[in-house]
Structure formats: structure tokens, C-alpha cells
Amino acid sequence: MRPRIVFHIFRKDLVETLRDRRTVIMAFVVPALIYPLLFTLLGSVAVDKRGELERTRARVAAWGPVPDPVLEAVTRQARADVVDRRATPPADVESEARRLVSSKTAHVVLVTPAGAAPPSIPIRVLADSTNVDSDAMERRVARVVQAQGGELLRQRMTTLGQAPAAARPLDVSEEDLADATRRGASFAAALLPYLLLVLVATSGFYAALDLTAGEKERGTLQTLLTAPVRSVEIVAGKYLAVLALTLAATVCNLGSIALALARGTAAMEAGARFSLGLASAGAIFLTVLPAALLIVAVLMAVGVMARSYREGQSYLMPILLLVMLAGFASFLPGAELSPGTALVPLLDVTLLVHDILVGKAGATQVMVVWAVSLAWAAIGIVLTARVFQTEQVLLSGEKPWRDVFSPGVRSGRGLTPGNAVLFAALLLVLTFYGSALFERRTGLVPMILGTQLGFFLVPSVLWCRLFRVPLRETLQLRWPTGRGWAATVLLAGGGWSVGAAVWEQLLRFPGARAYSDWLGELLGKQGRLELGTALFLVALLPAVAEEITFRGVVLAGLRRSGSRWIAVVGSALVFGLFHFNPYHVVAATAVGLLLGWVALESGSIVPGMLIHLVNNGVQVLGERLPAVGERVGSPVVVGAALAATALGAWLARGSRPPMPAPVPAVPVSLSAPRR
Amino acid sequence: MIEARGLTKRFGEIVAASDVTFSVGRGEVVGLLGPNGAGKTTVLRMLAGVLTPTAGDVRIAGHGTEGEAFELKRSLGFLTGDTALYQRLTPREVLRYFGRLHEIPEPALAPRVDALVRRFRLSEFADRPCGKLSAGQKQRANIARAFVHDPPALILDEPTTALDVVTGRFLLEAFREARAAGKAILFSTHVLGDAEALCDRVVLLHRGEVLDQGTVEEVCARAGARTLTDAFLARVGDEVAA
User: Fold this and answer.
1) Are A154 and A164 in contact (CB under 8 A)?
2) Three-class SS string for B121-135?
3) Which residue range forms the structural domain that includes residue B90?
């Protein structure tokens, strides 16, 4: 993939879309006008209504022997007029009261049954809760009636020579612990996740439609296909353009909402205040980003199936509804982020944004949702790339699904970047839930064995078999050259220092020390595992299984992107993500950069395996044997190891054995020839 | 320069092209003629690397579709009725965009675009959105787009259809100039008069198969007809009517 070409396509699509009045109006102008208008209008209506209710005198009907002191208090304190006074209540009290309220003759009806007498006189306060005026007046009148009851009790107690407080053995008062900020956050936590997801989907809707179905309808997609561009470059350029427009429109929309809220705060619940800190805003943006990646990918994959803009609208509408459904979870009481809900795309984002806003989300929780969301987004992006590589979809849009989902489309042609991303995404979901299940049901040893063998080694081999790629060549299962061996010895001896140096820096951050201690215990510090078992499970097994997965399958796919940077950084990031904890992700990514680079330079997976083995082995030994721990922790040893690493890296450079150039990753035309 | 060898394309049960073989040499214009549904567009799309052949080979300037798609597309200027222009970009922007996709260096791009604007007489509307151009103006801009990377081979599908006489004549003249410059041109048209006037050889395609090919005179002689139109009707007219 050539970034320059992707940029040209991205820029053209951006310019073209921004010149489309329909897209700009729907994505930017309408929301920018709607929210201020809506909030200002609602705010002013709410304020007007509240003022009107304050000024209006309540109209009260009193039926039966309602005590005069009560009526006097209601008239005076609740600012009410008795508009219908009857000595005896009618036969059908409810119907008659309903009639009075609906005809606006009265807001509230007070009813005391005929014959009621002290010491306890029942008073019913009837109002219609669906009628705003009646409901508000009921609160005003009922409060006064209750207060009058309290006053009568106080008088009686005094007459009896008792302290009024004696009638209240328990003086109960309800107080809300949540201050105005928390109430505001709770309000925002219900609304904002839904709003964010819906904004992303609606913002991307028209841009995705215009650049897929719209282009097909206008015939410009075929024009583009006549140019020397890879289909993956077309997808990337268009995808980035839609994503940029989506994020820009979402930010504009949110800005518009924020401004409108600031002006129309009267519309908000009284006593609620909402402000978003920079850290929370950043966390929310980073949480919504993978959701945007997924939504845009799905919109584009489905949009390009349509033969016309109109057909595309019908195709994309159900997606919009699904997004709204996922966002709606934030309104549901009891909906919580759990291992189950974290698996559901978009729902996990909704619940995490909710938790961030109410201050419940922890770093691990955030990391897990990011990893799972990124995995879903990757699956979506790969799907989109597959759709764009299906010639029938691009040229006619007829019967495309079989081609899109058929694994045989690329069989025998080697793993591709999209294929590698799909593999990593599926594996990420499988590993996260699978290892959690193992840990709960079986314990540490079966968990490590199951993860390494069942989630890394076996799926990697099966994946290669499924796509009929030569195992040895794809995974680089060959010995390094003499120079490669020399580099390997140095890198294995010193490579562990890369992770150690990164860890040393990470320990400055809050929470890192606790995680490091927990990891130390896992590695055997507390004697949970025998030293030999620990070395086998934590050093040898991952060195083989993880190298085959990450420097084998994942790197093999990514290196056919044509960019060494994408291959090394991409495989390192994927490797890092599988460590789930934020600190471990950073450290593992750093080690992954070294391992990926060495695998590319040496043309062999063996050096990586040995470096990985020693790296993990040093960690185990460092935790188990205090003398080793002290030595590997000393700046001198780390410095020497880093120097050995640098020398090894220099030696490894270009040490791969001569071999034929790889076959280009992307088919020369839109799909492999079917013979 | 342009070679089709045994090109076959199947869409499920439908055979859109079957064992199509012909070639176009340097400085030669060959007409690909056939009624609607004959498979012309499918053959042209396979030649341009837009469609993958089910069987057979394509060579453009020596480059095949397998592993050399980039070189193939760089050697080819392609225009069909389906290759439209971006409605919201101007012809000048379209030319610049395709020039960049063909990786023409930026310093060379502006003079190249200016030269094409002059050559295809686009100056008057070069900075107007393509969506606001007439059919003739759009076609001139689109042909300029096919020439932007100065390819040695050109595939032009119905380039003069639905154009006024003046624009049609202008474009035919431009194709003659290209031929004189040594370019290989594969030219598909319904306007048999144009084919007769411009083509050195013709290929008659019907129901996805090559019925005949050769110079206009040879094809007419084999069909026992005086004109290309008569020869064409003699070979496919009755079947089309049926």
C-alpha cells in the first residue's frame, strides 16, 4: 500500500464530498441548527411554563366535610381558589373529578367521605398526573395539606401536655448524597453515549453512501479502477475520508449540543450541573473512536453493495437502527459492563462511556473494551476491504455476498494484511474470553497451556491450512544465516533489556507497581509454580506459540502490505494488545517492535523465538532468584544488555538469506482468477 | 501492443466472452464492432484489468494482468461509457487527480495538464464542475483523462456516440494524431462510418465470440458486401432481428 496514493484518494474524496450540498447540509448544517433551536426552544418553553405555573392560582374542588382549616391553609399557602364546593361527594367520585380536571374547571379535587369525623379525617387529593398543570398543582396543594396535618398533630399533642416530637418516634428525612455535579453526570451518562453513537452513525451515513453507492451510480468507481491503484488503496483512501468526515461532523454536532446546553441550561433538570474533565473527554473520544471505525466500515461495506444512492439508503437504514438500539442501553437501568456485554460491539462502548461519565470505569475495563472494540473494528475493516476486492460488487452489485465471504477467494495466494488483521481480531476475542473462562474453571497451569496451545499455536497452523499457504515459508520456519546466528546470540543475551527499560519507566505511573507485583506473583515469586514448570509455561511455550502467531501469521500477512513499517509496527501493536493490561501492552509492544524487526531482517522466526525465550526466562528467574533479580535490575547490566542489543540489531540488519521476492499482496485485478 | 489471447469471461452460467483473440499493433487503430450485448464492454474491461478473465491472457505493451497490473494500467488509457467524471470536480482537477494516481511528478504535472487542456480545447470549461458540462465537453475531458499519462495504448469504447458532428470530428482527428504518434488504439463504436473512416482493421464480435477480423476490405469481401455496414448486417443483422 502506498500512503501517497491513499492520501490522493482521501483528499479527492474529502473535497468531493464537501462540495456535495446534500451531505454537508445533512451532516453539518442541519445538526448545527437543530440543537440550538431545539434546546433554546425547549428551554424557553420550559421556563415559560414554569413561570406560568408559578403565577397561576390553583383551582381546587372540595367535596364532603373537608375541614375548614385545611381549606383555609390551601387557599392561603397554596394560593388556591375553591371553585367547586359540595357538601356531599358525588356517587362516582373519580369520573366526576376526571371531568372537572379535563375541562380545566379544577386542577385538584379534595375529597372527604360523608360522615368523616375526628380524630382521623381522611382526605383524598385527586389529580391527573398526565396533565402537566394538574400534576404541578397537586404537588403544591398536597404539600400544604400534609403540613396542615402536621400542625393539627402538634396542637393535639400540646393539648395533651405532650411534646410534639413525641408523635414522631422516628424523625425520618431523605437526603441525596449526589451533589449537583454527580446528578449532572448521571443525566449526561444516560444521554451522551446514545447521542455519541447516533451522531457517529448519522454523520457517516451520507458520506459513506456518497462515496460508495453514489460513486457506483455515477460511474466514477470504474474510472478509478482503470488507474494503477490497488483496491486496498481505494478502500483506505475512501475509508479515511468517510472517517474524517464522520469525526468532524460528530465533533461539530457535539460542539453544537454543548453550546446549546450552555445557553439553554434552564431546560436541564434543576440542581444538575454537568462538566467534563479533559481526561474523561479524552477517554470518551478514544472509546468512541473504535466504535466510529466499526460503524464507518460497516456503512461502507454495505453501502458499496447497493447499485444506487436510493438503494443504499434502504440498505443502510437498518444499520442506523441497530446503532440506535445499542446506544439505547445507556437509558436502561441495570445495564452494566460485564464480560458478556463487553463482547457485544457498540453496546460495550455505550456502557463504557456511561461508566466513564459516572466515574466508575477502571483502567483495565477501559483497556478491555478498547481491545474488544478494536477487534470488532478490525473485522469490519477487513470485511470492507474484501467487499471492495469483489469485482461483481464494484461493477454491478449483483450476487456479491458469496464472493465476499468465500475464504477460497484468496486461497493459495498467501496471507494478506487484511487476512492477518482478521486473524488477530478473531484471536483477540477468543483469547480474552477463553483465558478468562480457563482461569475461572481450571486454574493457572491449564489456563496458560490452553491459551498458548489452544488460542495461539493451533489456530495459527489451522489458519495457514485454511488459506492453503505453505507453512514453512509463511512462518519463516528456517534457520538464520551465520550472521543471523551471531545477531541472535547478542539479541537473546541483551534483548530482554528493552522490556526491562520500558518497565522501569512505566513503574513511575500509578497502578503500574501493583500490576508488576501481581505479575511477579504469577511468574512464581510466591512459589505457585515450580521453577522448571514456570520456565516451561512462561518462557518456552510462549516463545514458540506466540512467535508463530505474531511473527509468523500476523507478520506474514502485514509484510505483504509492501511497507516494512506497517509490518513491524502493526505486528508489535497486535502482540502488545494481547497483553490486555495497559502497562503490559506498552512494554510488550516495545519488545514486539524488536522481535518483528529481527524476524524481517533475519528472514527467520528462530531468532525471535530465542530472544522471546530469554526475555521471559530472565523475568521468571529475576522473580524467583533474588540474586538474578538484583543483577538484571542493575543499571550496569541493563546498560550492557542494551549495548549488546544495539550490536545484535546492527548485525541482524540484512542478514536474511537470499530468497525470491514475495508475490504482491493485492491481486492485480479485483480478485483472483477462477479457473 | 494490445493483445487478447483466448479471452473468456463467465458470470455464473452466462458466457459473456468466449475465446476472444486479436491484437493491435503500434500506430494502428482497430475497431471492435458488435451489436449490443455482443460482449464488447466485457472484453474491453478485461483488457483494462478491471475484470479478471476466467481464462485467457491479456498483454498491454508486453505486460499481463498476472503480477503486472500496475505496468499494464500505466501503459493504457481507458475510456468506456461507464467511466464517468467526478461531477463535483472540474476537468482540471480530474486531470491532476489521475496524473497523481499515475505518479506523474508534481513539477511535470501542471505543464502536462495545461498541454491536455489546450490539446483537447478544454480551456473554456476547465475550471467548471464536470456536472455542469455538456455531453461533448464531458467526453473531451474524459478522453483527456485517458491521455493524462501519455500511454502507448488506448482503449476507447464508444468515444463518439451521442456527440455532435463537430465534437465527433474533432475527436476522430485527435485519434488520428495519436495513431500517427505511434499509439495503438482499440476503438469500439456503433457508428460504422467512423470505424470505416478511422480503423486500419476491424474485429466483429457477436455473442461473445469473434465472427471475423481483418481490414475493412477483407471483412467486406468475405461477407460479400460493399460497405462495412452491409458486411456487419450480413453477419449479425438477421440474428439480432430474430
Assistant:
1) yes
2) CCHHHCCCCHHHCCH
3) 85-150
pLDDT at A631 over 70: yes
Query: Is B129 close to A19, i.e. CB distance below 8 A?
Result: yes
β strands within A150-290, DSSP E: none
Q: Is residue B94 a part of any domain in this protein? A: yes
Instruction: For residue A167, give every residue at least 6 positions away whose Cβ sits within 8 Å of its Cβ, in sequence order, or none.
Output: A153, A154, A157
Residue with cell string 489471447: B5
Single out the residue in B150, B171, B195 at which a domain terminates. Answer: B150
Predicted structure pTM score? 0.63
Say if CB A122 and CB A145 are below 8 A apart.
no
Q: How far apart are CA A377 and CA A379, in angstroms?
A: 5
Q: Do B160 and B144 sit in the same domain of this protein?
A: no
Q: What is the pLDDT at residue A412?
A: 45
Contact B126, B164 (CB under 8 A): no
B3, B17 contact by CB (below 8 A) = no
Co-location of B10 and B66 in the same domain: yes
What are the chain B neighbours of A20 within 8 Å (beta carbons)?
Answer: 88
Segment A311-342, tens digit of pLDDT: 888 788 888 888 888 888 777 766 777 777 77
Say which residue, A211 or A59, is predicted with more confidence: A59
User: Which of residues B104, B129, B150 is at a domain's end?
Assistant: B150
Is residue B232 in a domain?
no
Q: Chain A contact for B118, CB < 8 A?
A: no
- Judge if B158 and B206 occupy the same domain: yes
- Residue B242 in this model has a pLDDT that exceeds 50: no
Judged by CB atoms closer than 8 Å, whether chains meet at A395 and B129 is answered as no
Count of domains for chain B? 2
Q: Which residues of B touch A669 (CB under 8 A)?
A: 49-52, 65, 69
Is residue B6 located within the same domain as residue B124? Answer: no
Contacts A–B by Cβ distance under 8 A: 101
Kindly determine whether residue A19 and residue B52, on different chains, have CB atoms separated by under 8 Å.
Answer: no
**Does any CB of chain A come closer than 8 Å to the CB of residue B132?**
no
- Per residue in A360-391, pLDDT (tens digit) is 777 777 777 888 888 877 777 777 777 776 66
Angle at which helices A3-18 and B91-101 cross, to 10°? 160
What does the DSSP 8-state code read for residue A312? H
Which domains are delineated in chain A?
Answer: 1-49+180-405 (no CATH), 56-162 (3.40.190), 460-658 (no CATH)
Residue B235 lies in a domain: no
Give per-residue pLDDT as tens, A112-162. Answer: 998 888 788 899 999 998 888 899 899 999 999 998 888 888 888 888 888
Question: What is the C-alpha separation between A422 and A246, in angstroms, rounded?
Answer: 24
Torsions phi, psi for A188 (to 5 deg): -65, -35
Grid cell digits, residue A237 = 483512501
Assess if residue B80 is contained within a domain.
Answer: no
pLDDT for A410:
44
Q: Within this chain, do residues B66 and B4 fall inside the same structural domain, yes or no? A: yes
Strands A80-86 and A58-63 come out as parallel
User: CB–CB of A670 and B51 under 8 A?
Assistant: yes
